[in-house]
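Q: Trace token order:
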Amino acid sequence: MSLERIGSFAGTGQVLDGDQNIATVSYRLEIYQNFDEGSSHSGPYRVPGLKSITGAVNPSNLPMGRILKLVTKEGNMLNFFLKTSDGEILGSGPLLNAQGDPL
């Protein structure tokens, strides 16, 4: 099993709590992909597994322990929760485009 960074995003966006806009933030997101690797009688293989999204938001005075939504200026969306009081976040689902499809 290996982990590989497959993308990163940064910019300014809106944070929603339900339907309510609660903050404008600067954000940085890192997207990682797990890969199952090995070999079988037919040769080596590398199968993509789960993705994880980590990052940070500033300002970080957001409510902890709640699922929030980041909406980027491009319209991409990520459900996340604040992991630490200094702004570290952890995605709780895929990064979606404006049409709701995973990126």
The CA atoms of residues 5 and 17 lie 28 Å apart. The longest strand covers residues 20-40. The mean pLDDT is 94.
